[in-house]
Each structure stands twice: as structure tokens, then as C-alpha cells.
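Write out the 3D structure for:
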Amino acid sequence: MTADRYAVRVLEFGRADVRGPEVFWMRHWDAWVTLSFSVVLIRNASRCMLVNAGMSRADPELDRLWEQYSGHPRARMRLGTSVRDQLRALGIGPEAVTDVILSPFQAYSLSDVREFPRATVHLLRSGWAEFLAPSHSHVVDQTQAHELSVPRDVVEYVLFDARNRVHLLDDQDVIAPGVTSVAVGVHHPESLAVTISTRNGPVVWTDGIFHHENFSRRTPLGLTRSLAESSRLQEFLENSGAAVLPAYDATLTERHAHGVVAE
């Protein structure tokens, strides 16, 4: 890989099921949709980057909240192989990870951020401000309790232990040569689209959509903060000409053998 071309791989660590309208706006009322929770590994000769840090331990309180919201135990997280173990199998130790990009600020995406002690932690500046001092100017996601969304020890780690390694991203920013981010909202105030340059062309990952159908059929995310933000994200994705990686699409491992998007 050249300095601005990366290999991209999806590392799934868990799954859970949600009601169809949570994923697809006003559709699939009687369906359940399986969500895949994963971390995206982005690397070349000089950088080893992760989009999100993953979650290796079950959180019973969060599981109970999700089950209560959906009305069924299948909404609980089903954890698989941890991100750390998957990285180890690829010959990557925790100290080799140079960057962790966090989006959104949820237990399933950032609980294990402390596993990577040398990584620069990238957070959307406006999203971090909204998390620390909510304006309540947006629709509140009732599926989450604030204290469960981001575990207290993770907040303390980012604020204190890792503060010299925290990089606050502007709404449009360059994380590294060939890796850029754009604030998109839709899912959460801190939600991003991360565009990665590969030898196969650009790839864009975003948690502003959950499933490829959100993009291919222009179906807004069910759990959306804003239909206007959803429309802008759709336009961005279409204009990017990139291969789209929806953050929670359980078919990604079928579309990309062994999760390998680009080598």
C-alpha cells in the first residue's frame, strides 16, 4: 500500500436484532432485522487505524434496556470474537494501532477504546460538545439512557488519561492522507461518514445508515434525528462514487469474503 492507499477490513464482534422500522423509515413493520456490530480496520505501511473500538464484555443493563424497548430478548447483544483477538490473529498488537475514530458515542462502539494505549482518539468536535452539554435541540433517542450510552470509565479515560491523544474533528476534516471525515448526523449528533482511499477506489463507511437498502433504495434510517440530514447524506454518498459500507449491515460479510473490502 502507498501512503494514501489503504487495505480495509470489517471485523464483526457482535449481533443483535431490531424491529424493521428502526432501520427502514416507515417500512418492514412486521420484520426483524439483524444488525452487525463491527470495527473497520484501515491500514497501510505507516498507519493502522480503527473506526470504533468495539465491545468485548456484555452490559446487562444495556441489554435489559434494549429488550424492554423492543419487547423481545432477541434484541440483546450476542457477542462473538473480540476485536482485540481478531487483530491478534492478523498479527496486530494493541500498541500497533495508531488511530481510533469514534462514531457514534455508544457503548458498542467505544467501550474498548482503552485497549489501544498509543492510538490518537478522533472525535467530532461538535458531537463531543453536544454529548458533554446537550442542547436538547434534537430528537432524543429514547432507546438509550445517557449513562449507559457511554460508560463512565470511558468518559473519564477520554477526558483525562487520553486527553493528550484526543483529536477533535471539524465537520469536514482530514484524519490522515487518504482518510477524511464528514459530520452527517442522522443517527446521532456525532455520526460521521469516513472516506478511505484504496487501490480499488474510494470506500465510505457511515453510521448514518444501517443497511445497504437505506442507500440503494433511498430509504431513510428509521431511527433518524432528521430527514433533512438523511437526504443530505444520501446525496453525499451518491456523489462520492464510493463503495458504501453501512455501519450495521449484517450482509457485509457476505458481500465481502472474510470482511475484506480492499487489500
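The chain has a mean pLDDT of 93.
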